[in-house]
Amino acid sequence: MTTGQKLVVSAVVAGVLGAVIGGGVSHHMGLTGAAMDGERVEVDLAATRKDLAEARAESRGLKQRLHELQADRDSLAREVEESRSSTRQPTRTDSPNGNAASSSTTPGQPTLSAMEQKARELSAAWISDALQIQDPAKRAAALASIQQALGSGDPARVLAGLWAVGGIGHLKYDKPTMRSPVVTQLEAEDPLLRKGALWALLSLDRQPGDLDLVLRLKEDPSPEVRKEVLRIASSISGGDLTGEVGDVVLKGLQSAVSRDRSGESGWKGTGTSPEFRMFLSSIRWGKLPSDLEQALMELAKDPRYRTDVVHFVCMNAEKTPAVVDLLIEVVGSPGAMDMEAVLALTRGIPASLQSRVAATLLKVMETRRPDAGAWDSCLHGLQQYGSEENIPALQELGANELVSQQVREKVNKAIEAIQRRASR
Predict the structure, then answer these.
(1) How many CB atoms lie within 10 A of CB 327?
(2) How far apart are CA 336 and CA 330, in angstroms?
(3) What backbone phi and psi angles, to 5 degrees, belong to 390?
(4) Which of 159, 307, 325, 377 is most deeply packed, by most CB within 10 A?
(5) CA distances from 16 to 1, 26, 27, 37, 48 (A)
(6) Can you tell me the distance from the alpha carbon of 170 to that of 4, in angstroms, rounded to the nearest whole number?
(7) 96, 85 in Cβ contact below 8 A?
(8) CA atoms within a 13 Å half-sphere pointing along the CA-CB vector of 109
(9) Do the Cβ atoms of 290 and 94 come closer than 8 Å?
(10) Mind spelling out the 3-state secondary structure of 15-62?
(11) Beta bridge partners of 240
(12) Chain Cα centroid distance, residue 199
């Protein structure tokens, strides 16, 4: 019985109990004997208590898994926010003549030109007014100011307008009115405006030719614009990194690794540079070309890049044979990423690899404590990918006298799920 079914049963019995308290059981249920009423209610209560106990046990078992998934979500959210912050307030930008902007006088603060400082102040005010929900007139005025700025010819105001469009992407308004001035700036002389136009385009309603517009800038002389092309193209393509988009991403990966290894990124700390991590976090893929996948798998052999690559491939919904090989290898070497790899093996596994993954998950269960959270993740994966040949091993694990009754029930539920799938 599923948790939803249990809640329905509970609701039905709760209605019966309410009728009992109101003194109208006989009328409500069409029964005439008080003894019969009592017996029926007792039977319902007993069944409900059993269902609720099972639901609570299942809920407790899922809490650890939920915690792990929330941690994964929070990590991804931080990376996305870093990526957005980098777009809004770049730490290194190109001036109109193609040279990097001058250094900030405050260590650790973003390096912004005077034009960017002005654009940031204007766009922040417009975004705030556009997103507030108290004053419709203020929102309308902000949208009008953004549109006017885009056509003003003043580089700082145009940049502010582009940033503002990017900052109100989820707002419902007349977006087609912004499209033409945004697209025009893709050909602007200033690379700041071209980069800003790419970000703004992502916040407008999709049009069939958007990807072609973005890819026109793939050979842009500004490295900042090229990085933005990579990020926006992967998003507009829906994660399909094959074809021309894949070529752009592969070139971006090679450049990011080169800059990281040579020290050009300016990173002096341990591990990979923020620039390299930003590159990976900005790419979300659903379909990966073989040459790009091969490059990532080769990179994962280097201890310096292994954690970042594993985290990257774990995020993908569909796992290829090469990715599954990497994840199984990580699971076999307990460390910081092994639990993330276990979770990744519970989703997106093609049919041809499911038996191998199921065997891996069983091996994890044999080597981990049943109360450490790993068992819940493994059982979740086995319910989807396990077969009847895995049942004897599960039965042996569940029969271990040192395993708690709660864990034993979870194992039995996984076995039942496997049997149900096998009987279909």
Answers:
(1) 25
(2) 10
(3) -85, -10
(4) 159
(5) 21, 11, 11, 10, 12
(6) 33
(7) no
(8) 9
(9) no
(10) HHHHHHHCCCHHHHHCCCCHHHHHHHHHHHHHHHHHHHHHHHHHHHHH
(11) 287
(12) 20
| Residue 121 amino acid letter | E
Amino acid sitting at position 366: E
* Tokens standing for residue 117: 């400082």
Tokens representing 53?
A: 């106990």
Structure tokens at 271: 């591990």
Q: Which amino acid is at 406?
A: Q
Residue with tokens 């766009």: 123
Contact 387, 418 (CB under 8 A): yes
pLDDT in tens for each of the 424 residues of the chain?
A: 544 444 333 443 344 334 333 444 333 334 334 333 444 444 445 445 544 544 444 454 444 445 444 444 444 444 444 444 433 433 333 333 333 333 333 333 457 788 999 999 999 999 999 999 999 999 999 999 999 999 999 999 999 999 999 999 999 999 999 999 999 999 999 999 999 999 999 999 999 899 999 999 999 999 889 989 988 998 888 888 888 888 888 888 888 888 888 888 777 777 788 888 888 877 766 677 888 888 989 998 888 888 888 888 776 767 889 989 999 998 887 666 788 889 889 988 999 999 999 999 999 999 888 866 789 999 999 999 999 999 999 999 999 988 899 999 999 999 999 999 988 8
Place of tokens 């997106």: 348
